[in-house]
Amino acid sequence: MRLTTKGRYAVTAILDLALHGSGSPISLADISTRQDISLSYLEQLFARLRREGLVTSVRGPGGGYLLARAPGEISVASVIDAVNESIDATRCQGTGDCQQGTTCLTHHLWSDLSNVIHDFLDRITLEELIHRQDVQRIACRQQDSADQIAVLPIVHTP
Fold it and tell me: Of 29, 94, 116, 153, which residue is most buried, by most CB within 10 angstroms?
């Protein structure tokens, strides 16, 4: 199965936003620190998420991003789709030219699997993930780590 870093990072970042947003804009720098995803990569992902209407941006001091819809209205599949990722178990990326330009013997099996995975992820919302105890525990740990990084003293060397 092919789910690349782009899809994984997009889901991770928007889930972070859903967990920490609570009505206030969240900066990409904060998400970057908590999730260890580069800021420039997050900027690319959030541009796509904004174009697809999953997040909105707030400019200026205290600005950042907010979810554009309630967490219960955003599925994991919609996030992956928004960043132009496909959940594809076929070797041919769904084109059907997997065996010297023609459909291979198991193409339809893998294509069906891709559809089942997409349907599964389409039924899981950010709201459901937010309420999972394991997600809550990890989010608290990440926030504690980010808070420790924020208070580390700056050491100047001559």
Answer: 94
